[in-house]
Amino acid sequence: MSKENIGVILVNLGTPESPSTGAVWKFLREFLSDRRVIDMPSLPWQLLLNTIILPLRSPRVARAYQSIWSERGSPLRHFTQELAKGVNPSDIDEALSRGQNQYDGIAPGSPDVSMVTTWAMTYGKPSIQTRVDDFAQQGIHKIIVIPLYPQFSSSTTGAVYDRLAEIARASRNIPDLRCVNNYYDHPLYIEALAVSVNEHWQKFGRNDRLLMSFHGLPESYSVKGDPYIAQCHETAGLLAEALKLDGKEWAISFQSRFGLARWAKPATTEVLVDWGQGGTKNIDVICPSFSVDCLETLEEVGQQYDKLFAQSGGLCMSLIPCLNISAPHIALMEKLVDEHYW
Q: Which of its termini does the chain have fewer beta carbons within 10 Å around, N or C?
């Protein structure tokens, strides 16, 4: 009996094609034009976006990208691509170039199923649509989509669902799609975070306190039913339990505020200032809502927040890397595929 082919798409948010002002402008325009991200009436928002925000923000964000860009390009793109390769060695781009129809990768726990894993971006390239088309070209019509957002938010995972709905709406032969909604409390996710913290402590030593900094969200989103903030608190509590931390040894906070709206509290900046001014000299910071390192972890936390903590009286702020392409992260992705295969 022939093996069934399934496709897996790991989806991240996106990144500009280069750290130039023009490329950043293009990326931010697509990203910030999504009503999932900015919940404002379209006409006034587009006027504000194109006349004030993009002209002012694009050069500044481009400089931030330049500080973390490497010969491998964008860290988010690099780590997302390598994570997909780690989950399964069969790469859709290589397979297409060779004209292959069959793949050697085996879906975990399913010996009669061949699996190929690839990656896509909600904004920018490669798009989810492109990857679904690539799979169709290879005769793969059963697809598992894993948004690389452990905690569900309408502004992130919700946007992935929108893309999948658009694909279904435009298709005469709709692929069989399954999307992973969240994994904020998955045992392997919590274990992977705990392993990353313990490995960091073993290598660099353990500091006085651990700050778990999650991406922020406007309070209005939670009021309308978005479960993201509640799931962040659940993740933080489970990680603290896994690390056997008491209440004084850790805290949760929210970063990456944008605009004038009220955002989830406490803000990471406020906690860092309070800790620094209050006599906490040495801290570790982990960013559990980010699957791979990116602008928000490497530049915002690693550079801006490190400077802020030092200016507030702190001596050492040690940033713990995201899960990236670690073995526990790969094992988590494979388990999610196994659990969502049908």
A: N
Q: Is residue 247 part of a domain?
A: yes
Q: Is the dihedral of CA 141, 147, 150, 152 positive or negative?
A: negative
88 within some domain: no
pTM assigned to the model: 0.93
In a domain, residue 304? The reply is yes
**Domain end call among 39, 68, 97:** 68
Render each residue's pLDDT in the chain as its tens digit; 342 residues. Answer: 456 789 999 999 999 999 999 999 999 999 999 999 998 899 999 999 999 999 999 999 999 999 999 999 999 999 999 999 999 755 545 544 544 443 344 455 555 668 899 999 999 999 999 999 999 999 999 999 999 999 999 999 999 999 999 999 999 999 999 999 999 999 999 999 999 999 999 999 999 999 999 999 999 999 999 999 999 999 999 999 999 999 999 999 999 988 778 999 999 999 999 999 999 999 999 999 999 999 999 999 999 999 999 999 999 999 999 999 999 999 999 999 999 988
Q: Which residues contact 54 (CB under 8 A, 6 or more apart)?
A: 25, 28, 29, 32
Are 157 and 181 within 8 A, CB to CB?
yes
* Structural domain containing residue 54: 21-68
Q: What is the CATH number of the domain that holds 206?
A: 3.40.50.1400
Q: Could you give the CA distance from residue 138 to residue 115 in angstroms, rounded to a whole number?
A: 12
Asked if residue 324 belongs to a domain, the reply is: no
